[in-house]
Design a protein that fits this description.
4 strands, mainly alpha, about 55% helix, 11 helices, globular
Length: about 240
Amino acid sequence: FVDPRLPPPSDEYAIWNNAVVQHCLLPDATEGQDVYLTITPRILARALSVAANLILTPEEAEVRFASAVATMYCKRVLTHSRKLQVLRRCGDDGLPECAAFLALSVLAAYRMHTDEGAVANAYYKRLDELLLCGVSGGLPRGFDPDEFEGLWFFLRAWLDREHGKQLAMPRSDVGLRRFVALPLTHVPLRQVDIERLPDFFDWSGYEPGDRASIERINTDLFKWARVCGAFTKAGMDVLADD
């Protein structure tokens, strides 16, 4: 998207955008392995500490990140006639300006409860809780699903062209829920399941500082999930996904 009158995003948004790209998308991955834009409060805190040498708690990082993206959305997206299309571009630093916004969309999916009825309606409610822009027609104001999908395609193309990496995308058979499937693809475990993991470590007898093999953790995790029924259905589906 080209508009010479469009001002650059704020410094705060640019910092988060850089942190998300550098920490989540560009680290070395096994050849042929998909790259995931997985976002949690802890990941946000770690990304900011590496990119900007700022130390925040996960809770502080989540609030600051969401505020930066919501402010950008209100001042830059909602005020422009082309709405989400204004993020379909690279900034002066060469990074896609949509990265932090898409990361926020993943954070909204991370916050979803697995027992929420209509997936799309529940997701857009979570997204609006972060954007704080109000809802129109069941969607956050200014949000167009097709343009949202286009931002994911733009990010995927940039990652492949500039770094030879493959961004994870939903399967082709997701049907009418394909827009919500885009951020959900990058959420291996939702918040409701992540918050149950301390019980797993207690149950398994791990001590702080312990180093365990992947094989042992896998075995213990499957056994704990099966015996205790601790994960939601979505969490159990994750365990069955190679």
